[in-house]
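Predict structure. Input: E3 ubiquitin-protein ligase RNF166, 237 residues.
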Amino acid sequence: MAMFRSLVASAQQRQPPAGPAGGDSGLEAQYSCPICLEVYHRPVAIGSCGHTFCGECLQPCLQVPSPLCPLCRLPFDPKKVDKAAHVEKQLSSCKAPCRGCSKKVTLAKMRVHVSSCLKVQEQMANCPKFAPVVPTSQPIPSNIPNRSTFACPYCGARNLDQQELLKHCVESHRSDPNRVVCPICSAMPWGDPSYKSANFLQHLLHRHKFSYDTFVDYSIDEEAAFQAALALSLSEN
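Output follows.
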């Protein structure tokens, strides 16, 4: 819990101030979405808490009953999410150096520039590649919890990864009112195996939208297609 609070506090510090501060070297971080960690794209602000996100990044939270702010976890009225005009104004007027070529670019055009910057592409190409753990002759303890696949807490369907568990629960248990224990949280060292979530589907959408496999194995198109299908499924129900 302490780690989660520290992450929230760190993300809150990235929320944009009323005007540019701290020099242009930190502007990109100040005007970055806490969800995708990129410069805001079509930013929107939650009326109750004031936190700002990319419009597309906030969409999954708007598809569930009684949504919570992804940053501070406070409930908010989806009808009171408005275009963050003051942030868009800052994005159009403030410039920051590209993290690759150091050319100063307006924040509103930073995403487009970074996607075509050869220096950024070179940096990404030189990032360390994932390498599997070297096999060992030492015995593997038998009491290590399985944190790769999970069982549905409603019907017991097994061998579901995080994305499959989310899809399964949306399709089969969206209207189930029972309080259940999150199998993902309970498998973690900090998890409470006795805590039952009052709205498990909302918990999945907010807390477990992304997983390691999403970043490693999913292409951008596959992830976008999945999120679009999920939003459609929720709206139809």
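The longest strand covers residues 43-46.
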